[in-house]
User: Fold this.
Amino acid sequence: MMPATRSRLLAGNWLSDADRAKGRFRTFLLTALNRFLANEWDRARARKRGGGAVSVPLDTAIAESRYGADMTSALAADQLYDRQWALTLLERTLGRLEAEQQRLGKAPEFAVLSPALTAERGDIPYAKMATELGQNETAVRMAVHRLRKRFREVFREEIVQTVADPGEVEEEIRHLLAALAG
Assistant:
């Protein structure tokens, strides 16, 4: 993004238009960005023969690889946005949980048990984990259960920070899970 474009984006007092009663802030941001980009596209097309624009070299290999990775999905742009948002919340949750476990002195245990956070119940290798941790399988099952429960709690806390009304948390969780499934 060109410096002049960034300054136009940041100069406007467009955040004052956000209204919680009209919907999610994430939706407001997406709509605002789409409108801004449409205006910028119109502005760029209106200039004749570059109109003093500065050329910026691009690393097309990186851009093409990212574009290709995004295009492997048949999802629409808003669905990709929702999916990326859900993945971001999961990453933040995992990061918070890992930091919490480190503070408790359970970093080695977390390293072994953390793959169970995203695994299906029937796919968790409890016996292998028990061997790695030098514990019995029942203790590992309880540790996984507690870790998964804490993961859900931290995930919920992350979501509470993103919704206007705590009553929207359940709906937001369903929406995020659907975005991940799609």
In short: The longest helix spans residues 77-103.
